[in-house]
Amino acid sequence: MKQIFEYEEKAGRLELFIRIIYSFIIGIVLMVYGFIAGICMFIQFFVVLILGRRSQTLSDLIQGYLEYYVHILPYTSFMTDERPGIFPSPVTIYEEEKV
Fold first, then answer.
1. Both ends of the chain: CA-CA distance in Å?
2. Following CA atoms 41, 97, 85, 55 in sequence, which dihedral angle do they give, to the nearest 10 degrees?
3. pLDDT, tens digit, for every residue of 32-55?
């Protein structure tokens, strides 16, 4: 299984310049998605306060935002040259259980 944050020695100079424009576009998508996720967090607060339970739909949207953010971090942090998709796609984030 490939890790999300993995060291890569090889780096492309051309990709460095493409990354500037591509990161700007990703930043716009992330900003809009983050705004929507923030509204969902606000609504989720009141759902928990009033009903005493969480909304699955709101949780899924917030989780999707966080997964997308983690998915684009290696590219925007100059850790990899592998371009992520502009629009969110499912990403598996796992944590190994301690024995």
1. 20
2. -20
3. 999 999 999 999 999 999 999 999
